[in-house]
TrEMBL record, chains A, B, C, D, E:
Highest classification ranks of the organism: Bacteria, Pseudomonadati, Bacteroidota, Sphingobacteriia, Sphingobacteriales
Origin species: Olivibacter oleidegradans
Name of the featured protein: Bestrophin family protein
Domain of life: Bacteria
UniProt family annotation: Belongs to the anion channel-forming bestrophin (TC 1.A.46) family.
Alphabetical UniProt keywords: Cell membrane, Ion transport, Membrane, Transmembrane, Transmembrane helix, Transport
Principal location class: membrane
InterPro entries (UniProt xref): YneE/VCCN1/2-like
């Protein structure tokens, strides 16, 4: 997630460098053609690029809307994981017999491991990183048998809670209530994976991109005939806005791609870690994650 | 689902071949008329096609919005099926007496069969394909008595779980919790069928299509009087963008039509198959489905 | 629901016949005035109707959006009724003692009657049609004491299920689970009635309609001065698009009005009937409802 | 709620009388200035008011959208109250011992009183009106100790249901299910109060209003130079449309203000009253509420 | 929350003072350049700023939409806290043995403390303010061990309710129902924190702001050539509208920032306090919070 601190200009323009060069080249070509073949280029009414620009802004607005919704849904999912993680610890403390504090702690920390692991997995990074201190080596080995590592951790917690019931430290009814909370984690995991794995309709992006170049060409022809000193800057500024907004939309669409615009899953997992330690009254709690220069992961 | 890999140009343009030909013909007719009857064709202010173009982009944006929502809802339904399938296996393992592992396995694999069968059924393909190894011949025969094959599989699972309760391997309370999960599958199935069977308001699409041709005619008249070398290309490019976006919307509306833009139900069912095998600690798990050239079903 | 088959042109144009005549009359009046009083009519810049047209398309888009949402919500409600009806039968079969098959059948068929009756009631038709074979004469008589007939059927099912509990054929816990399903039917019924009884803000439609005529008048004045052969056709075509889209929105708003654009409640109820017969393993199942010429109710 | 019957023109124009006078005054001032100082007023390109008009329609569309959502949410809340009220009676009849019919009736009628009282309270009217026949004098007195009268009625029902449980006429499990229904009423009440008490962002409305006057001024200057006979009518008609749509939005925003555009809470409460009497098999049921001349409250 | 009473003009314009100065400076620079270098500045067609203005209004509309949704979601969360707080008291009174009134009161008032504390915490103010009379000193001390103070209060309530169960004053089933209500508070807390901690996509705001200045520059060049007396006022008025709407959006985005446009969390907590006292039949209830001059916090 980008923070409110000053975002480096370099970061912003690196995104559309190539496209801006294309726009300038198009502008220069049209200008050159205009100078040499002035009599052959008929007039392009300014209303043509103006209406194309309006159409682009309308379609871009749709694109931004849907992309924002994906990004916000991703954030909501991780927000729900925070809430349900707190509820899980409170429920374990309320429902399980008091002598089983060690097992409550084991389940709660394994759940924190699940949070870290899910975040890494969504980003395509090593899902076993950061969790060595939270689970034991047996659990670590068990994870290797699964293609979906976080699902393995979820199964371990489900089975250990089932064992608490079988050993009489949890009543059937409390067991079902805890199970409902586990189902929420299963849902959250699947929802995040859905966002990760579903590609935004590709053709839509292609056509929008194409329209921006149609706009650039028609606008440059339209401005070309009046010997305009601000033709190229104007082309670059307006098409730059469109291209940057389109890029913003594209980045919002994929919030688990290990980029500065990502949902800050590691920071959220760390918050859950701290809350869990507080609720378990642990003596040692980790420090909150600090933002990088202008973003937080 | 289209993947991010290079989409063949041929695939894109095959969709609007016929319409583009219409647009060119309209452009040529207007041009010819303009040459022979130049004095009789009055001026068409460029503001007319410009405003029609803006109106089209606004209405297209509504169309894209609703179509995207249908497509995304279809994807959400199949995402929910993934989550609930994982929860089902974990619940069976937590709730059913341990000696009944064979029945747990039978129910879990029959559920995987339900996933494959539902996907095929939605696409209008054979709902009994791919499931021979997952259910026994008795189940296969029972399916023939039902007009809705996946519903038959759901009933078998519901009744077998009820029998586990009757035989004392499941308590009443656990039974109700498992039933809640089965209700979710019934909901997901019905929701997908709703999207499949509900036709997007037909008249809306007709009027939008009609407006695009009105736009083409007015624009070609408007450009016709200035002896424009880019009249035809401009007509084709702008109306092509509109037609392609309209086609994109149409394809998103129907995500279960056995097309490259479909929701990848077979791939999702395969993921569920793999997860289920992992959770059951099966020795053999199937391989994930590989994408076709530029899409995955 | 309109099907994808060819919609008769007559059906479409019957809807806006009167308005189109108005538009032509306005166009002709302006034209006549223009011929006789040419010097007195000042110029109307084309930008005025162009911007009004854009404004109409924006406001029409809002109208279409909300209308579509109502239509889609109506379809979702009936989709939910399908899902919950299947779940109800599966729950009855799972929860009620096996010797009570006859009562399960009675409740399930009475529920099918509720589906037919609700559909008829929403459309303002006879709510006791089509259900003679599904409920007995005693139930039929009981319905007469209620102003809301489907609610009477729902109460009968609720009380009969409560009696199953009182007679010991259903445990308390299963009873509550079945009750949860009945609550869903009560919700669905009320939601459909809400859509039926809530009138879309009337003033909004009035003002939009008024703006379309303002557009027609300004456009015809604007085109009037240039002796235009396509003035009247253009007026008719553009305002016709607006009027047809506005009419589409109006029809989507009221999906229970016994019109071709209705939610196909009878067809959905028939599907439920078929599914129920399959699940009950009845020997006789009704045939699915066939679409009328170009729509299905 | 406005009904579909003919809405008096007087009702519509009373809403924007003052603003229309402002618009006419602005138009006349600009015209006078134009006549006397014709050489000093430079040209205002028509594109300026045209683009401002488009911007207003876009922003108005956002405003209408959010206002409609508030209005529709208010209607949904009252729709949910209908559904849950029916479910409440059915649950009381299913769950409470049969000999306690008198208490079931008392609770059901007190609940009807809650519906009337909530509607009155939301509108800022006397929350104790219309309910004298539904609750006894003791309940009436108890209400005086509460600042929120409907909440008092809800508490009475909750405590009486708890007493049924304490006296053994209701099992614990049924009690929890009934409590779930009461929680829904608490939610509905709070949601309606939220809509009532949350003011739509005031600055937004101010700026939009301001833009409409900017539009009027720029348009009148723009039209002023051509000695236009339709300047004033055009100004009034276009700005009138905007002002009426803005007013429509404002009225939709506040659906509990005792205005013709209100959510018809009294009529809904009456429907609940009738349904409850039918379900209780009361001999006397009240008549449905008839609409006023062109609206229903 | 801004109230409907007259908002001071000073409050509104303080927000965009700096930007308005920038706009005037740009206008004056362009004017000066136009006077001295009149022959070198080519014509800027008015269609360029007009279309940029339209594009800004479309993108602003998206921005307002999403910002409004955040603001409304924040208000919904606090509305849900009101509802669930009322339900909590009613459930405690219905479920806990009557002799434990003192503990019911202690839990209910601690919950009110949680409401105040959460509001303060979200605004970055002292989370221990206003709650001295509601919880005892032991609770106060316990809060110091937690980094998230409201979470500490929630844990205390969860554990005290669990103790009521352990001591036999609450049955298991009622316990689970109360726990469900506590889970809702955990959810509401996390959801509000999510809105507080998630920064609206920064780049989007930057690009929109940039486009407004591009609009100002192009419009001032476009108007500059005609020696216009209303160039500067027009620039200020139109860009002022855009800047104010953009600022409105920005303020709606962050509803927990201790500003007049905040969600009125303190006032809502006070309402909960009053309702709780009424339901507990306390002899003393606090007065409702009065609005500041033109807003309420």
């Amino acid at each position: 997630m980008l923070t409110n601190t000053k975002i480096p200009i370099a970061y912003i323009f690196r995104k559309i460098r190539v496209q801006i060069v294309y726009v300038i080249i198009i502008g220069l070509i049209v200008k050159s053609v205009a100078i040499y073949f002035i009599d052959f280029i008929p007039q392009m009414p300014i209303a043509i690029p103006a209406f194309i620009g309006t159409a682009i802004s309308v379609l871009l607005s749709f694109n931004l809307n849907q992309s924002y919704d994906r990004w916000w849904e991703a954030r909501k999912i991780w927000g729900a994981i925070v809430n349900d993680s707190r509820s899980l610890v409170l429920q374990l403390q309320s429902f399980v017999s008091e002598e089983k504090q060690a097992i409550i702690r084991q389940i709660a920390l394994r759940h924190v491991a699940w949070c870290y692991s899910l975040g890494q997995n969504l980003r395509g990074l090593d899902p076993k990183k950061n969790i060595e201190d939270l689970i034991n080596t047996e659990d670590m080995r068990e994870m290797d048998n699964h293609s979906n590592k976080p699902l393995a951790l979820l199964q371990m917690n489900a089975l250990q809670i089932a064992n608490l019931k079988k050993d009489g430290h949890l009543t059937e009814f409390y067991h079902v209530q805890l199970n409902t909370t586990l189902v929420k984690f299963s849902d959250a995991m699947g929802m995040a994976e859905r966002i990760k794995n579903t590609i935004f309709p590709v053709t839509y992006r292609l056509f929008l991109h194409f329209m921006i170049y149609v706009f650039v060409v028609t606008l440059s022809i339209s401005l070309g005939e009046i010997d305009s000193i601000y033709e190229i800057p104007l082309l670059v500024v307006i098409s730059g806005c469109f291209l940057l907004l389109e890029r913003t939309a594209t980045h919002l669409q994929d919030p688990f791609d290990n980029r500065p615009t990502d949902t800050p899953v590691t920071a959220v997992a760390r918050t859950i870690h701290i809350n869990t330690c507080n609720l378990l009254k642990e003596s040692k709690t980790p420090a909150p994650l600090n933002p990088e220069s202008f973003y937080i992961l």
